[in-house]
Amino acid sequence: MTAIVRAQGLGKRFRGRWALADCTLDIPAGRVTGLVGPNGAGKTTLLSLAAGLLRPSAGSIEVCGGRPGSGQAQLAQVGYVAQDTPVYAQLTVADHLNLGARVNSGWDGELARARITRIGLPPGQRAGQLSGGQQAQLALTLALAKRPRLLLLDEPVASLDPLARREFLQDLTDATAAQGLTVVHSSHLVADVERVCDYLIVLVASRVRLAGDVSRLKAAYAASLEDLVLSFLAPAAGVAR
Amino acid sequence: MIWLTWRQLRTQAAVLFGLVAVLAVLLAATRAGLSQQYQQDGAAFLTRISGTYRTLYLAGALSVLVLPCLIAMFWGAPLITRELEGGTFRLAWTQVAMARWLAVKLAGTALAAMAAAGLLSLLVTWWAAPIDTAVANLDGRPGPGLLIFARLSPEMFDERGIAPIGYAAAGFMLGATIGALIRRTLPAMAVTAVVFVAVQVGFALVLRPVLIGPEHLVVPVSAANFLNIDMFNSMTVTLALPGAWSISQQTLNPAGHPVSPPAWLYDCIGSAREQQGCFTRFAALGYRQLVSYQPAARFWPIQCGETAIYLLLALLLAVSCGWWLRQRLC
């Protein structure tokens, strides 16, 4: 397998506390990977490091063959949707697309407009007045219209109601299939991961507890994905695949 | 990125430039009348000046004085904290490289702040020229009401000329840097205001007097130039130099050493009907007054020097703002 994200002994320390320590993992290219783990496992820190929003305190991370945050060319290859899907409350939907078009050389304006129309986001509406689901859709649109090679999603549906969550995930599946994207999707909801992901990484306390193809894992352990993940989240677990 | 900077600033910029425009209209409409009155009234100009002109004079000075501080608090401090608090930096910095994002935002907003401060200050300076000239001709003797400060005096210097451009730039960068350090909007605004005022007062008291080496003058004290003896028993005289800024004064004894004026002089001035007799005796004993001052002609050289220093400070703050943001978040 070719790795699109490659971490070696990666660590990040905040005020003396390690949020991620000695993390070594490969995330395969061309797959939709679910990154699952309990709160505090380091998922958000790992994705922030991959997006270049943080610099490692230890070890190294390589994304799309480059160092995250090393410039505009690297940024263009990676789309990122942060936790709580932040958007500028005072700016309209159209303003957000305008921003994307102005700062990205590879911006796909056609794709952005088509998505906004299909989802039904009013272009003149201020983003602060959109529902949580609509804000998440807008944030995803900004990330997708960059036409990145890799899309990083940090629990984008955590704050959404079940209906909005299902719509978002369905839309995400369609979009990634259409663009042939590599996706890393962090979540602590195994059901969501099962719906959209074909590769699974279980991260517990910065360590990869389990990694593999979703259908093969289910077959090998003869268990539902939920039970399988739960058994690996337990402190005593550590079974190698 | 320039577009985003503009899009996020435009409402605040419209409010600020709108207020400047309102004041500009008021000042432009009244300037001819003020000039005319100055020509007509000559020496009596300051005592006869109308309430409208006084109000405009004070409003102009006050607005130039507070504008840089307001820019520091409301444009500088929230620039980064707003993005951190709303989480939108994660959106912005995955679309634009952080260094470019910061550079454009700092430069763009600073230019708008400098333009507003410069316009306002030069407008007020132009309008108040007749009053400033009349005040300068008082030679340091208090005029009526609040019309007492020459434009080189610490009270008025900050509200005249090009220096407010430097204050606005440095204030804005100070706010942004403190925002990057504290990372919360309200505390950053409060700390910015305190630090900025401290810097401005410190500069006026410590650095400005010696920006260009002061001139010295030794004069005898007379009833004509005597101003007062203050509670710390130090004497002040007026200078026969229109618009000069008296920085410090010392009374010299016959041997040429700085001393406090002898107690008998104080009593003599208080009791005698004819004060000149006291000063004649004082001068005959060999007492003189040493005055360190900046001549009025140095107004623009000092303005230029001070503006340059504040602009340099702004540049250093911009660099440290970027450095801190990188340290804290990366």
Gist?
The complex is a heterodimer of chains A (241) and B (330). Chain A is of the alpha/beta class.
Describe, in plain words, how this protein is organized in 3D.
Chain A has 241 residues and is α/β, with parallel strands linked by helices. Chain A has helices spanning 43-51, 72-77, 93-103, 109-119, 132-144, 162-179, 190-196, 214-221, 225-233; strands spanning 3-14, 17-28, 32-36, 58-63, 78-81, 150-154, 182-187, 199-204, 207-213. Helices cover 38% and strands 26% of the residues of chain A. In chain A, α4 runs antiparallel to α5 (132-144) and α5 packs parallel to α6 (162-179). Helices cover 66% and strands 9% of the residues of chain B. Chain B contains 13 helices and 6 strands. A 4-stranded antiparallel β-sheet of chain B has the order 1-6-4-5, with no helix packed on it. The mean pLDDT of chain B is 93. The A-B interface holds A 48, 51-55, 69, 71-72, 75, 78-80, 82-84, 86-91, 95, 98-100, 102-104, 139, 142-143, 146 and B 1, 3-4, 7-8, 86-91, 93-98, 100, 329-330.
Rg of Cα set of chain A: 18 Å
Mean pLDDT of chain A: 90
First-residue to last-residue Cα separation of chain A: 17 Å
Oligomer status: heterodimer
- Assess the beta-strand content of chain B as a share of residues: 5-15%
Residues in helices of chain A, as a percent range:
25-40%
Report the strand count of chain B.
6
Alpha-carbon Rg of chain B, integer: 24 Å
